[in-house]
Each structure stands twice: as structure tokens, then as C-alpha cells.
Design a protein that fits this description.
The protein is mainly α and 324 residues long. Helix content is 75%, strand content 1%. A two-stranded antiparallel sheet has the order 1-2. Helix 1 packs across helix 3 and helix 4 runs antiparallel to helix 6.
């Protein structure tokens, strides 16, 4: 079984080769800039690792894995624009380095580039992979819209939030796992178990993101701390804080939410203090642990040698502990 580091070493040279020799350069340079920022490459690596559970030769999974990573970066580019985020991976976001129109159009071109790469999937698997990807891409749009809708709502339930992040984040990780399994020759049942493993892993991944937005280190996180608080985003932390807060704490959060003359630091500190008093960090970690167990249970259902799952288990555990 190939390790995460081994599949990453196989993929990274491919991303370094991505260059668009078309004109105008003003369209393609932001795409190259975005992809050159790197990132953890979790999604394409999981695609190859899922394939490798069933097949020692992962080469047929390389192009679709790359396409899924290009698509992921496209979603980040547009997400940063919608959130008006200044930084991504400790570098200026595309709309800050260039402008809004460039971010929109270059993002659109990235989506097309992703489809082109996925279209290079071998014929026996092509339709299933394209159908899976198209379904996933539309679900992610639904998740993003829910996220935007929640910003204007006073109340969002924990169940609604988990469904939103399932669509916005988890389905792409699930897609990567299932795509790799399909190309590797997995049975339909095993492919579905790996899909659900990806869903639970993706939920854990996003909850960790929620935690890092409040409790992370900007140097390792790669984004400004407190961005969700400043944007009044409904996160797992905020939803549970509003549910557990007393009347005084609720009033304080609403006050700081509605005040426009406060400094970012004042608002972030006020929310973080309430989170600490309500033990919201520990509540979030407990939810992550329960989802992680569900993910591991899905792996236990696979009809494969359990030793072949060691590397997948290792990377899922690493995602639980990540600080960026």
C-alpha cells in the first residue's frame, strides 16, 4: 500500500507541469498562481490511495485525481471572492492580487480545465466518474448557497449546518474516495462504503476548520483567524454557543454581531470569550470524535485485507489532528 507521501510525490510533479500556453495570459496566469500555492493535496492523494486498495497500479487514477484537485481550487477561488477573504495559504487571494472580474472568469476557466482532466479518465470508467463528478459539483453549489442563506438567518440548527457542510465540503472528499475505488476495480458495495467514509471524514475536516478559524495559529492555518466571526457565519461553534448561552451571553453575541464600529479584534475576542466559557471547543471535538468513529466503521465494512487500509487509517487520523 502506497503511503500518502508516496502518492503525493507521484502527483506533485504533475501539478508543477500545469501550464496554459494559450492567450490571453491575463486569464490563465491566476490559475497557475492558484495551483502553485500548493496546499495539502488531500483530495487527489485520497483518490490514488483509494485506487491502490484494489490495484497496485494507480496510473489510471492520476488524471481524474488532478482534475478533482483543480476543481477544489476553483471552489476556493470563488469562495474567497464571495467571502471577501484577503489571504489563502499565506498569500493574497486572486481577487486581491488581481480584481473581482479576473477571479470570476479565471475561476470559470479552472472549472473547464477540471472537466478536461477528468475527461481523460479511461473509457471503461469515464461515464461513472463524470456522472459522479457532475453530481458532486452541483451539490457543492447547493452547499455554498445554503452557507450564504444562513448568513441572513437568525437561527440555524446543528442538523441544517451539518447538511450544509456535507454538501459544501464532504461530498468532494467522498467523490475522490469513490472515484479512486471505481478506477481500482472495487465492488459497488465497497465503493459506497468508501464514499460514506469520505462523507464522515469531510465533516470532521470542516469542523476542524471551524475550530482553527477561532483557535488556530495564523502562521500555520494560512488564513486570518476569526474570519468566520467577522463575516457572521453560522458555524458549528456559533450554533452551539447560541443554543447553550444564557440570556446575557446571547444578548452580547447579538450586540457584537450588529455593531459596525467595533474593531475586528474586539469582536473576535468577545465571541472567543463566550466560546471558552461554554466549552464550545470541547463540544466540537466530541462531535468530531463521534464522526471519526463512523468513518472508521465504514472502512471496517470493506471486503479487503485490513492491512491494506493502514495508510488510509493513518491519513484520516492525521486529518483529525491537523493545524492548517
Amino acid at each position: 500500500m502506497l503511503s500518502f507521501e508516496q502518492v503525493l510525490n507521484r502527483l506533485e510533479p504533475e501539478f508543477n507541469k500545469i501550464y496554459f500556453d494559450q492567450s490571453p495570459r491575463s486569464l490563465f496566469e491566476p490559475i497557475e498562481y492558484t495551483l502553485a500555492l500548493g496546499g495539502k493535496r488531500i483530495r487527489p492523494c485520497l483518490t490514488l490511495m483509494a485506487c491502490n486498495i484494489y490495484n497496485n497500479n494507480v496510473e489510471e487514477a492520476v488524471k481524474p485525481a488532478m482534475g478533482l484537485e483543480v476543481f477544489h481550487n476553483f471552489t476556493l477561488l470563488h469562495d474567497d471572492l464571495m467571502d471577501q477573504a484577503d489571504r489563502r495559504r499565506n498569500r493574497p487571494t486572486v481577487h486581491k492580487k488581481w480584481n473581482t472580474n479576473t477571479a470570476i472568469l479565471s475561476g470559470d476557466a479552472m472549472l473547464i480545465a477540471a472537466y478536461r482532466l477528468i475527461g481523460e479518465t479511461s473509457e471503461p470508467y469515464l461515464k461513472r466518474i463524470l456522472d459522479l463528478f457532475s453530481k458532486t459539483a452541483l451539490e457543492i453549489c447547493c452547499g455554498q448557497q445554503y452557507d450564504m442563506d444562513f448568513e441572513t438567518r437568525d437561527e440555524v440548527s446543528e442538523e441544517e449546518y451539518l447538511e450544509m457542510i456535507r454538501l459544501k465540503t464532504a461530498v468532494l472528499i467522498a467523490c475522490c474516495m469513490k472515484a479512486g475505488a471505481i478506477i481500482g476495480g472495487a465492488s459497488e458495495k465497497d465503493a459506497e462504503h468508501l464514499y460514506r467514509f469520505g462523507i464522515y471524514t469531510g465533516l470532521v475536516f470542516q469542523l476542524q476548520d471551524d475550530l482553527l478559524d477561532v483557535y488556530g495559529d495564523v502562521k500555520t492555518f494560512g488564513k486570518n483567524i476569526g474570519g468566520d466571526i467577522l463575516c457572521n457565519k453560522k458555524t458549528f461553534l456559533l450554533i452551539n454557543a447560541m443554543k447553550l448561552a444564557n440570556e446575557e451571553q446571547k444578548a452580547k453575541m447579538i450586540y457584537f454581531r450588529d455593531q459596525s464600529n467595533l474593531t475586528p479584534e474586539e469582536k473576535i475576542c468577545a465571541y472567543t470569550d463566550i466560546y471558552n466559557r461554554l466549552h464550545i471547543k470541547e463540544i466540537t471535538q466530541q462531535k468530531m470524535n463521534s464522526l471519526y468513529k463512523l468513518a472508521i466503521n465504514e472502512l471496517a465494512c470493506l471486503h479487503v485485507d485490513k492491512e491494506s487500509l493502514a495508510e488510509i487509517n493513518k491519513i484520516s487520523n492525521k486529518l483529525m489532528q491537523r493545524d492548517s
